[in-house]
Design a protein that fits this description.
Rossmann fold, four-stranded parallel β-sheet, 4 helices, about 30% helix, globular
């Protein structure tokens, strides 16, 4: 279902070069696999940066204002920054790709990492193994 939603969001732009901004690197991979060379994809959080503490640079904010589409995925920084993004990038279409994906409860990982031991939190890594909600 998410692939279909992504395809629908991009379908209006398929005959033109489209500027897409995504939150994190895994999203860039999926957008490029679906839309191919028809899109130019910018990533907000670069490898080595944390989506929990990330803050965009002024250049990224300016570039976002020129973007046709922004795909939000529900990473922590978006709670704070998404309203600001929408205020700066008024012509940009914002798509919540996490909509309709039921997040799983975090129950620790096999390596015993403590940051994943809170059952009250939901796993934001929906691109790894999503459980889709039936519509």
């Amino acid at each position: 279902m998410k692939v279909i939603a992504l395809w629908v969001a991009l379908s209006g732009f398929l005959f033109a070069n489209v500027s897409v901004t995504v939150s994190i690197v895994p999203q860039k991979y999926f957008v490029k696999k679906i839309a191919g060379e028809k899109v130019e994809v910018s990533v907000m959080v670069h490898p080595g940066d944390s989506p929990a503490t990330y803050e965009p640079s002024p250049k990224q904010m300016a570039d976002l204002a020129k973007s046709d589409i922004y795909f939000a995925i529900g990473v922590p920084f978006e709670k704070r920054w998404l309203p600001r993004f929408q205020n700066v990038a008024k012509e940009t279409k914002f798509v919540d790709v996490a909509k309709g994906v039921e997040k799983r409860a975090i129950d620790g990982d096999k390596q015993g990492n403590n940051h994943l031991r809170n059952k009250d939190k939901l796993d934001p890594h929906i691109w790894l193994n999503p459980k889709l909600v039936k519509s």
